[in-house]
Amino acid sequence: MELKEFQLTAVKSLFEAMDKPVRDIILKSPTGSGKTIIMTYFMHQYVQSYRNTVFVWLTPGKGNLEEQSKAKMDKYIHASQTKLLSDVMTAGFEENDSCFINWEKLTKKGNNALKDSERTNFLEHIGHALNDGIRFVIIVDESHQNNTIKADEIIQYFHTDKIIRCSATPKGIAKAEIIEIPEEEVIAAGLIKKLLVINQDFPQTVETENQTSYLLEKALLKQREIRAAFLQKGADINPLIVVQIPNKSETLQEGVERYLETQGITCENGQLAVWLSDRHENLEGIEESDATSSVVIIKQAVATGWDCPRAHILVKLRDNMDETFEIQTIGRIRRMPEAKHYDDDLLDSCYLYTFDEKFTAGVKLALDKNALNACTLFLKNEYKTVTLVSEQRSMVTDHRNPQKALQAIVNYVEKEYGLSTNKAENRTKLQAYGFVFKEDIIRYTVSGETATLDFSASEMNTIGVTEKLNTHKHGRDYHQKIGRIGLEIGMEYSFMNTIIRKLFDKKFNYSRKILALEPREVYSFVLNNADRLKHLVREAMAYEIAQLQLDMPMVSKNNFHIPQSCIFTYNGESKTQIVYEKNVYQGYLSSAAPRSMPEVKFEKFCERAESVEWWYKNGDKGNEYLSIVYQDNSEKQKLFYPDYIICAKGEIWIIETKGGFDRSGTSHDIDKFTPKKFEVLKKYINEHGLKGGIVRNDDSTDELCICMENYSDDIQSDDWKILSDFVKRGN
What we know:
By secondary structure, this protein is α/β, with parallel strands linked by helices. The chain has 4 domains: 5-187, P-loop containing nucleotide triphosphate hydrolases (Rossmann fold), CATH 3.40.50.300; 195-374, 3-Layer(aba) Sandwich (Rossmann fold), CATH 3.40.50.300; 399-438 and 468-547, no CATH class; 556-729, Trna Endonuclease, Chain: A, domain 1, CATH 3.40.1350. Helix content is 33%, strand content 21%. Helix 2 runs antiparallel to helix 15 (471-487), helix 13 (402-416) crosses helix 16 and helix 15 packs across helix 17 (519-528).
């Protein structure tokens, strides 16, 4: 199983949280982020390093969510040791078990799977495990639904010191360690749709005799448009419209079904599905991509655990009063079919049609910049012939090269730490940088009085505890630390271990070895310096000195044309709506969103600069946009999408904008790969006879500056020029 980079980061954060002095860990993961994959991978990795551990995964609901979760772990993790409640009742809890249990089967009246005698037996199994030294770690799935006294009662039986609560909408738990998966990273990975488009192409004032018919008509037109686009790409996917009606709204429901019938959509022909508490029709197989149904009617948020990636459109109807916004409902239309983007804004977006202002406000508040007003813009005729070359990755080489990673790490430490092949000198220099060289294992704890679990916020004494190295006892710790160092760069344990051994172990041959430690010393070195080593390998992957040593094989090149149309998202609440006339699209507004501050400022510059004839805002993912290939230092290929293409004095410029510099000259650019992107951008524009560079804002002068020849992070260097002066000259 190959995890996405954000998923590996989440696993790493879970490991780190397990070491902290808090009981509750909250994993806030957007719907569609692969929460189950993250957790099963973490559970598997954890029991490899920490024996005598049993994970208990608690799920809610009357359904079979626990069986689904177990099946996924069995699928993703070969030879996983998984159990259901029935298995626990037969065999009890055993070391390294991952047990999936529906807690409502233990507590809820009428849904109680256990008789009193069996319940006693279940508690006895827990007691036996605790007596055998088993440590229980509890995972509470869909934790927003598990916040009940009875659920907490079940948790208490296990006497656990760690509870991991998973939800897209977690409820507040005091003194919890929060791990939040950024939605933009899930989007970038192609797992969920890029945008939620609200009321696309609605006029400023809607006049209609029947709001229900108006919204359903819009949704059906969009559904047919999406369906045709899928077929054009050779994908047999039937996009689903989810129609949500309020509770106690039978009249409204009847109106929906009457209108759909006029469009040839009925339960009888299978095109209409109904998912209500007292009515279930055409639900079997509804999740399949090519299912017959094109519309499903629901009342409240769709049942927990329901995954239907073909759901693209939500029609939210209201009846007399507004209902509370439920982000879970939106989550059901955000998954991507086949877990990938299709390089088409139409297919890579989901759509909301509603007149419910309160619901819309809730959506925007919850999704922030990924929920915007939208309209379709069309390319002006004069820019349809613009042609550039776009680069695409070779999937054949889309992997990390351990040899290149090793080389990059050596390059990094030689340059940053001043190391050489002199092992004694290297040891002294590393000590100066804070690396610890001791045969014993150093642990740290705290001492003192505190009224809060936030130890760092109180005045506590740090105490170092020395422990004699035992290779058998500490071997597991060593393997665990190596695994976590590897997670920093997405490197498998075996490769990461080999890299560490070549760098530091005298028994492993390597011409550029940093230290020559005895095998025992390697154990203590890794255990005592794990955090420093994690930082080292992470920085080394982005370090600029290794860029020129990498080959760029099998990069495909295709002609790029500015897309004929685009879904334009903007802030509909902005008081200033200026049409940017120099933009290549008709009707491009100044309130375009989402945009960073450097992007906003650059777009204003383009409109005002006499030398700029036209400009185009490039997309950030997809084959339809201009991309340039670069690599990290392990030779893993990545795509760089420059922010802008502009024409100034008849010349094409490729521009990437970055965070600016504050008044003291401190950089606000958080992108570690900026130097690499600069080099490949420079190579690209030279190869194709273009101009361009990196643009940043200097807050001390409030001027946009451009770097074109040699990249420097110092705005005061001669490498940075005033953009307005430079573009004006056209050279």
